[in-house]
Amino acid sequence: MKLFLYLCVGILLLPVPDDASAAGATLTGYQQPSAPLQAIVDAPRPPAAIGGPQRRTVALLERPARPALQDLPKGSIKLSGLTIDTLHCAGAQPAFGHELNLLNVADGRQRPVLGLPPRARIAHLEFSPDERWIALSLWHEGRVQLWLVDVAAARARRLLERPLNTVLSNGFSWMAGSRTLLVSLAPEGARPAPAAAPVAAPAVQESVAGKPVQVSAIADPLPPGRAAEMLGWYLQRQLASVDVSGKLTLIGTADRLLAAAPSPDGNYILASRLQAPFAPAVSVLRWARRTELWDRRGKLIKVLHDNALNDRPAQDRDAVEPGPREFGWRADAAAALHWLEAGDGGDPRTQAEWRDVLYEQRAPWRQPALVLARVKGRINDVAWGSGALAVLTETWFQQGERRTWRIRPQQPDAAPALMFRRKIEDRYGDPGRPMKRALDNGERVLLTSTDGASLFYASAGASEEGDRPQLNRYRLDDGETTTLWRAQAPYYERVLVMLDRDGRRFVTQRESQDEPPNLFVREDGAPPHALTAVPSPFAWMKSVEVRVLRYQRADGVALSGKLYLPPGYQPGRDGPVGVLMWVYPRDFQSRSAAAEVRDSSHRYADIDPLSPLALVRLGYAVLDNPSMPIVAGEGGAANDAYLAQLTASAEAAVDELVRLGVAERKRIAIGGHSYGAFTVANLLAHTRLFAAGIAESGAYNRSLTPFGFQFEKRTLWQAPQVYQAMSPFHHADKIAAPLLMIHGQADSNPGTMPQQSERLFQALNSMGAVARLVTLPDEEHVVRAGESVSHVLWERERWLQRFLRP
Questions:
Q1: Keywords, A to Z (predicted)?
Q2: Run of H or E residues at 673
């Protein structure tokens, strides 16, 4: 398959690039950017760190810089919202690791794991509860294989001959006792042949009066005929248990399982089976399903619930499925099921005293279910601690509010105690995440202090000075919060895991502007002890200045953005440089939330090759993610004022860059990905602020996403003026600045199908505008292959050289 590049040079007399001598010239072949940018593509990535549940060992997964184009899946199919690698019977290809090292937390010693295949493609790993073993899934020899690592010996071996099915799961999970895994095996027998083209015949679809159906824009609805049979085969999995010796025991029979989870004591299995008929226009995750309780051998104990096909319109963020939902196991009990049920039938328009109810039922399942809590919002999280402690969080978007409660599962009649109450958008008031610890069976529960009187929370420490992560102690009896530790400049440092039960010893991840993230142990105020020493692959980053800008929009809303200046650059001495603004706007319900400062000036610039920060290496300044809040008016929706607020935010950012002496107005470009690309096209259509634009994987015609997009829940027919005004395709005749568009040919993101870029390019081409469209074979919504990444950087580099030159 070729890489197609389209070039259109319109009536404006602009320079023609070296490789194209005429309008409409077509190029083929992958290109590489200049050496400084290619070095970023080729640089090694830092290892991924996965901590063991007993906090003794950290698995460090070394990752290649980028997969090669030939390693991208070639035999994948896309059906009903799923991407299936048919060769491996797996879901979308993960980001692989290829080497594994084990880090001892006590002394910082690292050991390589031996016995793995050369350049292994490790997809997923999981420690056993006792931390003696690590189970791995490897993509090897055309299948997903299960391997086992002996942690003490640091040696790996293949555990199973039969391949795993990872279409809908990771393929395995540890069970209590640390000797046995619950695995999902690929179906046996011949794989179905690719679906043949159906015999030509009339295609009929019918809509029933009074029965609205969700017409979600899934990119790959299930076609009729043999494709349904193919999908059914790949969704089949055979559950089994396998012990660390490799002994395999089948559980039940192969079936189309959506999910399967063992109870904490290993005696039961919670399973969810997909039910026919299949629904072509609805994601697999919304198909009819039956939730069942099995014993450990796969024998049915009881049917818990039958969920009907969920094809109703769900335009309200507070809407949920009717009936019991979100079944799970209590982490602090041997075998206790919990689930939620909406008191309003799932419809927020229905008046109800209690919106959500939390239920529990314990083995041996003879007693009726107990009500543990009733709330006036939707329960979105329950953290279990003990019979006397669980923490429940509820959200109600209509009020924009989130509340956190302490409940006592052993005393269901006891009134919940309010712990935190804040606006959903309020980062400054966010208490953070509760710290947890692992039980002997591997389940994670709330970590309480030695005396049981307190919980611990790790928060971002968001404030007007930026993020300064902290560790807080929360006293359960009176709600008093005490800060035990807070990150100090010039570092950004956050708590990952506590090593004791009183907040005196914990592991952090620390970074600064010129130091990449590394792991440290902190203890009783002593200097931190380094566990890892990952070096910076980019020495030149030490001379890059990072500033958090604070400025104001014309309507008074406070804005901020992170400015990266080229190595050694000083505005007063060197004068203005070319600037790239990389954008992604957000909706807010209040001006105060929109004005909150995000991020920190002390963070390391993790220069992923696709990040706009790579261009700092070439002498450009980059304003990354400047605030572009779209704030809802009183009683209205945020998008009702989208264009006015978007352009005001862009004007404020440009004015600030010029005021600082970093930029001159004729040498500022704007870029973005996905919703950011949509923003780029709109700003080029409705302002004259930018010399050029770069839009990647975007959507430009909102009539192609008529059932809602981003956080817009109204349909095209409910808000036609909003859809028309926000669609840059409808205003393509106003786009005067040159626009580079890049799109993956295999983009399956529902709102950003490749035709979005193709149609906008055709419109610009027809009007003689300056535009360029690049489509990348086999690439999804985010570009992955090294060759494609290099080509994207080559395109960006040439575009900015061409239109931001002095």
A1: Hydrolase, Signal
A2: strand 668-673
- Tell me which of 781, 788, 790, 791 is the catalytic residue: 781
Rounded CA-CA distance 177/129 in Å is: 8
Q: What is the pLDDT of residues 598-619, one digit of tens each?
A: 888 899 887 888 999 999 999 9
Q: How far apart are CA 375 and CA 355, in angstroms?
A: 6
Encode 630-667: b = buried (16+ Cβ within 10 Å), e = exposed: bbbeeeebbbbbbbebbbbbbebbbbbbeebebbbeeb
Angstrom distance (rounded) from CA 157 to CA 66: 26
Measured CA to CA, the distance from residue 436 to residue 479 in angstroms comes to 19
Distances in Å between the Cα of 38 and the Cα atoms of 33, 575, 583, 786 are 6, 28, 24, 10
What does the alpha-carbon distance between residue 622 and residue 581 come to, in Å, rounded to a whole number? 6
Beta carbons of 752 and 744 less than 8 angstroms apart: no
Q: Which of 560, 674, 697, 788 is catalytic?
A: 674
Domain covering 47-191+219-250, topology: Lipocalin (2.40.128)
Handedness of CA 203, 753, 779, 517 (dihedral sign): negative
Q: Please say if 674 is a catalytic residue.
A: yes
Domain ranges of the chain: 4-39+543-803, 47-191+219-250, 317-426, 432-533
Specify burial of residue 29 (Cβ count, 10 A radius: 0-12, 13-18, 19+).
exposed
CA 28 to chain centre: 33
Catalytic annotation, pick one of 747, 757, 788, 791:
747
- The answer as to CATH 3.30.360.10 being correct for domain 4-39+543-803 is no
Annotated active-site residue 338? The verdict is no
457 token code pair: 């929370």
Summary mean pLDDT of the chain: 89
Instruction: Tell whether the model's pLDDT for residue 597 goes beyond 80.
Output: yes
The pTM assigned to this predicted structure is 0.88
* pLDDT at position 179 over 80: yes
Residue 21 scores a pLDDT above 90: no
Q: Which amino acid, residue 383?
A: A
Task: Determine the Cα–Cα distance for residues 292 and 296; give it in Å rounded to an integer.
Answer: 12
